[in-house]
Specification:
The protein has about 110 residues and is α+β, with helices and mostly antiparallel strands. Helices cover about 35% and strands about 20% of the residues. The protein contains four helices and four strands. The relative contact order is 0.20.
């Protein structure tokens, strides 16, 4: 057995390379509802502007996979879940408030195109 991992070193390296991190995002929607389509459009626009080339977006339609709502303890859709970088965070709604989304992503509004 090798030495135990020093998580503090990994954390510090992650902070140093924050501008290179790939964000893993999940957007839970309910079909082609107006609010779901608006949330998807808003999120894509913000990701293109602030995380260009540094994000993976998985869109999950709860009408097609209803078991995930209970599994993920979702009560409302659309819901955005930032899976990585940690901590995991959630935001409910159409994602129309840019500042709320950027806060969830832990991105400063002056980081466009980083």
């Amino acid at each position: 057995m090798g030495e135990p991992k020093d998580l503090s070193v990994e954390y510090e390296q992650a902070l140093l390379h924050k501008s290179q991190q790939v964000y893993r995002l999940r957007l839970y929607i309910t079909g082609a509802s107006r609010s779901s389509l608006q949330a998807l459009a808003n999120l894509k626009q913000l990701c293109r502007q602030y995380l260009h080339g540094r994000y993976e977006l998985e869109v999950i339609d709860l009408y097609q996979q209803p078991e995930l709502a209970a599994q993920e303890k979702l009560v409302v859709a659309p819901t955005l879940v930032k899976m990585f970088p940690l901590p995991t965070r959630r935001l409910i709604g159409t994602l129309a408030n840019k500042e709320d989304v950027l806060r969830l992503l832990d991105v400063n509004s002056d980081q466009a195109g980083s």
